[in-house]
């Protein structure tokens, strides 16, 4: 009984830690994107980009929570803090990645330039997996959607992907 109580207490404390830390970057970006995605007065393409952000953060959050509540490992507070910091960093870089893509795409004057930019961002997102998630239906939910401009993989190391597209576009 004591063991069960201790495990439940640990899980509850872990979830509180996650929730407290999500009040930072990931939750702010999620809340902002959700408001845009559900605002019927907003432009459809802007809403679709915001929907991608909501789904990307939901994916990252789900993966983070799965790691934290994994009963096969008992994570230290430091490891939990690292996972939460990674969630915030990935959320921020994903947000920047989508915004950078949107700016680059909007500034392209020729269709072949737009196609090149879309291809660069798509390939970069898929070539930098974070979790190597085998659920390709989920991970690639946006990838070949012609009706969405944000055709990126959800399983992306957004920090590495953002750095790579910035480097390639600076060349």
Strand fraction equals under 5%
**With helices defined by DSSP (H or I, 4 residues minimum), what is the helix count?**
7
Instruction: Give helix % range.
Output: over 70%
Mean pLDDT: 89
C-alpha geometry? globular
**Biggest sheet, in brief?**
none
Question: Alpha-carbon distance between the termini?
Answer: 62 Å
Number of domains: 1
Uncertain regions spanning at least 5 consecutive residues: 1-13
**SSE ordering:** HHHHHHH
Number of extended strands: 0
Structural classification: mainly alpha
Radius of gyration: 18 Å
Description:
The protein is 72% helix and 0% strand. The chain is mainly α and 171 residues long. The protein has one domain (2-170). The N and C termini lie far apart (62 Å). Mean pLDDT is 89; it is low at 1-13. Residues 1-20 form the signal peptide. Keywords: Signal.
């Amino acid at each position: 009984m004591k063991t069960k109580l201790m495990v439940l207490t640990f899980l509850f404390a872990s979830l509180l830690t996650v929730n407290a830390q999500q009040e930072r970057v990931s939750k702010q970006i999620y809340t902002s994107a959700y408001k845009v995605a559900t605002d019927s007065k907003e432009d459809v393409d802007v809403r679709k980009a915001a929907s991608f952000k909501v789904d990307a953060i939901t994916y990252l959050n789900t993966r983070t929570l799965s790691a934290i509540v994994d009963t096969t490992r008992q994570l230290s507070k430091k490891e939990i803090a690292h996972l939460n910091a990674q969630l915030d960093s990935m959320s921020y870089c994903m947000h920047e990645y989508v915004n950078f893509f949107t700016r680059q795409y909007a500034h392209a004057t020729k269709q072949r330039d737009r196609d090149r930019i879309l291809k660069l961002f798509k390939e970069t997102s898929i070539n930098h997996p974070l979790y190597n998630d085998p659920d390709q239906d989920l991970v690639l939910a946006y990838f070949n959607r012609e009706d969405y401009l944000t055709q990126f993989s959800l399983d992306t190391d957004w920090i590495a992907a953002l750095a790579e597209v910035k480097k390639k576009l600076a060349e």
